[in-house]
Write a structure and sequence with these properties.
single chain, about 325 residues, alpha+beta, NADH Oxidase, five-stranded mixed β-sheet, binds flavin mononucleotide
Length: about 325
């Protein structure tokens, strides 16, 4: 049986996982050496993510982070994905058992170094071996990662990002939802965007369509990012979304190991109409899940907040648990 301090350290590291709008849409329910990972749908984003696809990807990130954190503590993990067909919120049951998964322990200290870097990266290109390691990290978790390298394709991807921005910012419900997660009184979750100052930001985001300005900025970021990649999966089911999340976390940590950070330009995946167009750019069948730019950051930014463990961890009820 893993001692409570070790388990707390593992969970504290796991919750450093990224999540859309920093919603942290996860609950960990403890039962002996089992940790049940539940989707917390009270933290869903109906305008941005109507199918809970990104919510599930975020939980997949937390699952991978937990596996890595356990390995860092010398613990192995046995994972049952979607173990209860009557409970779609129960995404995974993790049993802390046996030897650490090979190759994961060196990634554990990097969990607290990974951060979403929304600024422009420095100009250095990403070397081929680092790029190949990112691809391998995604493949190892059952997803694929396709770099958008050709100039014409990159231009098309940047155009899709700009069109996605214009569509999202033109939708008052989407803006209200974003503004709600930028609330100045939020403490353990939510977003700060470097180019907007809270609390003015929240008011501005809620009230004005800034689509044109944001689109121009994002288009520029997409065009000039050292590495632009599409993370995708063969299918588009809950299991695929969990795989995408695990792959995302794995590749982000692999990137940090090489000095890289990542940032998201997911608009052409979030706007359903644009998703097949992004898919075409990858030149392969399957479903784009994340559009990610990666590069060398110019500075270390303050880490984004997390809710305290006591808010995301609960004890499973009694021995009759499912
Ligand atoms: C599935 C998923 C989708 C995301 N989509 C976006 C996005 O479209 N734009 C963005 O700026 N950040 C996006 N993020 C990054 C989150 O906002 C970020 O992880 C969160 O604010 C926590 O910050 P951190 O990554 O620095 O720890 C996404 C993260 C995940 C896991």
């Amino acid at each position: 049986m893993t001692d409570p301090d070790t388990r707390s350290r593992i969970l504290n590291n796991a919750i450093r996982a990224p999540s859309s709008h920093n919603t942290q849409p996860w609950i960990f329910s403890l039962a002996g050496d089992d940790i049940n990972l539940f989707a917390d749908r009270t933290r869903a984003l109906p305008a941005n993510d109507p199918d809970d696809r990104e919510l599930t990807i975020s939980c997949g990130c937390a699952l991978m982070a937990l596996r890595v954190a356990a390995a860092g503590e010398g613990c192995g993990t046995r994972i049952a994905l979607l173990p209860d067909k009557d409970d779609p919120d129960l995404l995974a049951r993790i049993t802390l058992i046996g030897d650490p998964e090979s190759g994961l322990a060196p990634l554990a200290p990097l969990l607290a170094q990974r951060q979403t870097y929304r600024k422009g990266f420095d100009g250095r290109p990403v070397p081929e071996d680092a790029r190949d390691a990112l691809i391998a990290a995604a493949t190892a978790e059952g997803a694929w990662l396709v770099p958008v390298e050709d100039d014409a394709d990159r231009h098309k991807a940047a155009d899709l990002v700009a069109r996605g921005d214009e569509e999202q910012w033109g939708d008052p419900a989407w803006r209200r939802e974003l503004a709600a997660w930028m609330h100045p009184r939020r403490t353990g979750d939510g977003l700060t965007l470097p180019w907007l100052t809270i609390p003015v930001a929240q008011l501005v985001v809620r009230s004005f369509d800034m689509g044109n300005g944001v689109a121009a900025r994002d288009e520029e970021l997409a065009e000039h990012s050292p590495l632009l990649t599409v993370l995708g999966t063969e299918g588009d089911t809950v299991a695929d979304w969990i795989a995408a999340g695990q792959a995302l976390q794995n590749l982000l940590l692999t990137g940090v190991h090489a000095g890289l950070q990542g940032s998201y330009l997911n608009q052409p995946v979030q706007v359903a109409r644009l998703r097949p167009e992004l898919g075409k750019l990858t030149g392969r069948p399957g479903h784009p899940q994340i559009l990610l730019r990666m590069g060398y950051p110019e500075e270390i930014l303050p880490l984004s907040p997390r809710r305290p463990l006591k808010e995301v961890v609960e004890n499973a009820p009694g021995p009759d648990r499912p």
